[in-house]
Amino acid sequence: MSDYIYREDFIFGTRVSQKIYKENIDCELILDESTSIMKEFENKLSLFKETSEISKINENAGNDFVYVSKDTFDIIDKSIYFSKLTQGLLDITIAPLVKAWGINTYNPRFIEKENIDKILPLINYNDIILDEKNLGVRLAKKNQKIDLGGIAKGYIADYIIDFYKKNNVKSAILNIGGNIKVLGRKDNKNKWNVGIYEPIKHSTTAICSVNVSDMSVVTSGIYERAFIQNDKLYHHILNPNTGYPAVTDIKSITIINESSLICDALSTPLLIMGVNKASEFMKNNNINGIIIDDKNNIILTKNLIKDFTLFENYKVLCF
What we know:
CATH superfamily of the largest domain: ApbE-like domains
Strand order of the largest sheet: 1-2-6-7-10-13-14-15-17
Helix content: 25-40%
Order of helices and strands: EEHHEHHHEEHEEEEEEEEHHEEEE
Distance between the termini: 43 Å
């Protein structure tokens, strides 16, 4: 009999799995409550729910403040911090661009430069105005929209792991659409082993893995969602500065940190930066991770070497 209780749901438009260790706790009740918490987050943060706090902010763009819950305010406030840290490569006001390209939909489309130029003035995190005292959020310009898809899962993963801890869970793994966070050690003994897959769409081949405890592991890649037009590939990771899919020599990047928020907020901007700038940023900010570049080299931070295992014939470099 397994020593874990497993739960799977569909929340935030993705598969969410929870696995917690049975140890003198009411696992089913804890999982019921954690699932309910995540659904409450979805109701507040979803871009696609008309009654969400995010939708209300977007509807009022260019007008008045919208007063929101502390969690929503905190996520937006933290997104601005990471926007500044990454020089705008994380920008939650990117929503109009994402909608225009439609790469995450069944009808993606190429956007001509003249239309990009009309949208780009709407993309500016400095146009997010906060009223900290009253938890108010306002977008400066009409037609601006925010989308928390690049940071919310990390915030929520941290929140749920803290909820587990408060309820005496000692060992768990949470997976929110590929955003992974683990609590403690597997079976309270060994570190959790998290696989990193080859950067090919729908791949089931793990090319390497990393052993972690009390860490989050988040991967960003250009290979899962894309379309081809005139023999050119257009992927879903858009550069907020250009309006086009990022031109980068990184196929995928995995960030490993105690904070899932940090992993989520940095994985995509670092991918956009490319190998040289990303590795420099990681060294300067003490960020650990694993990069797979366009030559299929695996490049990892030296702190991960002791917990790293290679499965396939890839060249491994470290910094």
